[in-house]
């Protein structure tokens, strides 16, 4: 409770006579709540409009859940980290406050879609396939966001397609990293794992002796890239992951077998690539670099940002 009170004391209080977040109502005299755009077990994200008629995203976290589920550290970290990040590929933070029942976090509204919904629509044929050059541009923006966070000593710790929001910049897809609810300083110890099946094997195994937060983020980026080039349904086949697994550590063991067997990942990816992609050496280098089992060999964001696949034209023989 002391930790909770210390955190709340640092947030400005909204007038208690004003409404809690409610559709059609105005919060704090300047933000009209339009509709919910996302929700989870502990919070709801609303689309709101400020006094200048600008759209913003408002995350409302129920105070009652903070101490009950040990989330004080998470929400405190999220606010403190967002305050120090400012990058074109990271959703902008506008401020935090509290109502009687909620912690309110105001963020840039990027759009209604994220990378997961985009890939799902390409898989079902609702939109045209992801082009090779488009995938390169999207992944470049994602890598810039992660690289910026790591440069500023922040690890996201929950990299997955849902946490990359999609916007539109004159017909070009713009990408912004969102949801820093599990984020922490790079040097912070292993505590929150993230989301399966994007979690690095050393995180699943809770191997604190080798754990490096930035390396764990990069593994997750590698798994996201697999989904981009192979489709959302490819991960269970490539990574041998099933939701019905009784233990995540079984998955970690399977990952180690997959990645330690020469050529096995390459074959699995080649069999499931989207038709517009070819597994040439530059793309293969990126995948194996980010999905390297030894932490010391795993690519950092700088390796990805300077790799041949993102700085084309992509050339070279088929991966071997």
From TrEMBL:
<dbReference type="Pfam" id="PF00069">
    <property type="entry name" value="Pkinase"/>
</dbReference>
<feature type="domain" description="Protein kinase">
    <location>
        <begin position="31"/>
        <end position="310"/>
    </location>
</feature>
<dbReference type="GO" id="GO:0035556">
    <property type="term" value="P:intracellular signal transduction"/>
</dbReference>
<keyword id="KW-0547">Nucleotide-binding</keyword>
<dbReference type="GO" id="GO:0004674">
    <property type="term" value="F:protein serine/threonine kinase activity"/>
</dbReference>
<dbReference type="GO" id="GO:0005737">
    <property type="term" value="C:cytoplasm"/>
</dbReference>
<keyword id="KW-0067">ATP-binding</keyword>
<dbReference type="InterPro" id="IPR000719">
    <property type="entry name" value="Prot_kinase_dom"/>
</dbReference>
<dbReference type="InterPro" id="IPR011009">
    <property type="entry name" value="Kinase-like_dom_sf"/>
</dbReference>
<protein>
    <recommendedName>
        <fullName>Protein kinase domain-containing protein</fullName>
    </recommendedName>
</protein>
<dbReference type="GO" id="GO:0005524">
    <property type="term" value="F:ATP binding"/>
</dbReference>
């Amino acid at each position: 409770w002391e930790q909770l009170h210390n955190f709340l004391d640092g947030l400005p209080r909204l007038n208690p006579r004003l409404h809690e977040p409610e559709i059609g109502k105005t919060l704090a005299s300047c933000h009209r709540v339009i509709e919910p755009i996302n929700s989870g077990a502990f919070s709801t994200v609303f689309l709101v409009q400020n006094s200048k008629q600008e759209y913003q995203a408002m995350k409302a976290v129920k105070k009652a859940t903070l101490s009950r589920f040990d989330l004080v550290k998470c929400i405190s970290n999220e606010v403190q980290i967002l305050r120090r990040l400012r990058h074109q590929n990271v959703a902008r933070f506008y401020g935090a406050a509290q109502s009687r029942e909620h912690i309110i976090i105001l963020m840039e509204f990027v759009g209604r879609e994220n990378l997961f919904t985009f890939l799902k629509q390409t898989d079902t044929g609702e939109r045209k396939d992801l082009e090779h050059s488009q995938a390169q541009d999207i992944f470049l923006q994602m890598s810039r966001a992660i690289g910026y966070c790591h440069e500023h000593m922040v690890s996201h710790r929950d990299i997955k397609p849902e946490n990359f929001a999609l916007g539109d910049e004159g017909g070009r897809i713009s990408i912004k990293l969102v949801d820093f609810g599990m984020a922490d300083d790079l040097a912070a110890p292993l505590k929150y794992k993230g989301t399966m099946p994007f979690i690095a094997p050393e995180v699943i195994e809770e191997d604190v002796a080798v754990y490096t937060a930035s390396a764990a983020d990069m593994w997750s980026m590698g798994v996201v890239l697999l989904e981009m080039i192979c489709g959302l349904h490819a991960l269970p086949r490539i990574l041998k992951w099933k939701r019905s697994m009784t233990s995540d550590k079984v998955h970690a063991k399977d990952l180690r077998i997959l990645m330690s067997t020469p050529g096995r990942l390459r074959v699995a990816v080649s069999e499931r690539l989207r038709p517009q992609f070819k597994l040439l050496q530059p793309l293969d280098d990126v995948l194996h670099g980010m999905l390297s089992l030894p932490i010391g060999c795993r690519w950092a964001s700088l390796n990805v940002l300077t790799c041949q696949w993102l700085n084309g034209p992509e050339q070279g023989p088929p991966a071997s």
